[in-house]
Write a structure and sequence with these properties.
The complex is a heterodimer of chains A (80) and B (242).
Chain A lengths: L3 E4 L3 E4 L4 E5 L12 H9 L8 E6 L7 E7 L4 E3 L1
Antiparallel strand pairs in A: 1-2, 3-4, 4-5, 5-6
Chain B lengths: L22 E7 L2 E7 L32 E4 L5 E5 L20 E4 L2 E5 L4 E6 L14 E3 L4 E7 L3 H6 L15 E7 L2 E9 L2 E7 L3 H12 L5 E3 L1 H12 L2
Parallel strand pairs in B: 3-13
Antiparallel strand pairs in B: 1-2, 3-9, 4-7, 4-8, 5-6, 6-7, 9-12, 10-11, 11-12
Classes of the chains: A mainly beta (80), B alpha+beta (242).
């Protein structure tokens, strides 16, 4: 299983040059008034959508940049 | 310069890699013991292990003279700097113009400047003239002692590198010289392709010894063997002087 990702600095590269950084979850919720359950949900819960999602990737074998990419987990295709 | 008890100069700095070949000529420079030429460069045909080797041109002569082929040159002693600034595109570090695009490279009087990303450039001293001192301004870091720097020189370099990496280091869509940041022998490297027969890369110092060993073993299939600094300087100056 392999596919290519587009690094904003280096261009298209083999996915094995990258490290997956997880789904984009949006900003951390405000601490004030945050319940334990809300905090737990934000830090631990992940959606498993069968549709394209935004993800963080790290180009560790290349330029070392963190960036967001949109990928369809069902097909492993990077979306534009 | 530090001298030991016999009064002779002593190398204080140690290259991160060795080639297992016998130097024919060395020079002590800035505390480094620099190999200018190896014995195996003196018209000896065949690989270090005695196997027959493919024919290639003499890199220094550049005339396709048979009997030399691709060489691996240790340039770890060459001075290198990292320069970072949020507005790097508008600055002139060490007086050099910053290349506009990511991966673009400029060569100016023996100094090479590569644009790594939005905020960072690398500057390498590869010319024959003495290296300049690091400017006092903020943003500079001297990284010479943190990296291993190796050059692949001569005919057949592209064939050698095909054994070492899946990266396209000779992409015809890009204008030479250009920078590629990616894995060679699974080690993250900064690679500058200067010409079809000159490729220089840096990698973290700790990988140096095993990287050089693996490169010579894998590249040996295509005739790769050790070369001294003089060979690189001749080829580089020929390509970029004037």
């Amino acid at each position: 299983m392999t596919f290519r990702l587009t690094c904003p600095v280096c261009g298209k590269r083999d996915v094995y040059e990258f490290t997956f950084g997880g789904q984009e979850r949006g900003p951390r919720p405000e601490q004030e008034g945050l319940s334990a359950e809300e905090h737990f949900r934000w830090t631990q819960f992940r959606l498993i959508p069968n549709e394209p999602q935004e993800e963080w990737w790290y180009h560790g074998q290349g330029c070392g940049v963190w960036f967001k990419a949109k990928r369809d987990p069902g097909t492993n295709r990077e979306m534009r | 310069m530090t001298r030991h008890s016999a009064g002779r100069p002593r190398a204080l700095r140690r290259s991160p890699c060795s080639f297992g070949a016998k130097p024919a000529e060395t020079e002590l420079r800035d505390g480094w013991n620099v190999v200018l030429r190896y014995e195996s460069e003196d018209g000896h045909a065949g690989r270090e292990d005695g196997h027959p080797r493919r024919e290639g041109g003499d890199p220094a002569r550049g005339d396709g003279h048979p009997g030399a082929g691709p060489r691996l040159v240790d340039l770890s002693h060459r001075r290198r700097w990292d320069f970072q600034d949020s507005g790097v595109a508008d600055l002139r570090p060490m007086g050099l113009p910053v290349p506009e695009g990511f991966g673009d490279v400029g060569v100016h009087d023996g100094l090479v400047i590569t644009r790594m990303n939005r905020t960072q450039v690398a500057i390498w001293h590869l010319g024959a003239t003495p290296a300049p001192d690091m400017p006092a301004e903020s943003g500079f870091t001297e990284v010479t002692d943190g990296h291993c720097m190796l050059a692949f020189v001569g005919d057949g370099v592209s064939e050698v590198l095909e054994h070492l990496t899946a990266l396209d280091l000779f992409d015809p869509a890009r204008d030479m010289p250009f920078l590629t940041q990616g894995p060679v022998l699974h080690v993250p490297c900064q690679v500058v392709t200067f010409a079809r027969d000159v490729v220089v890369m840096t990698l973290a110092r700790g990988y140096g010894e095993t990287f050089a060993e693996a490169a010579l073993a894998s590249g040996g299939i295509a005739g790769l063997r050790p070369g001294g600094e003089r060979l690189f300087t001749q080829v580089f100056e020929r390509a970029f002087s004037g």
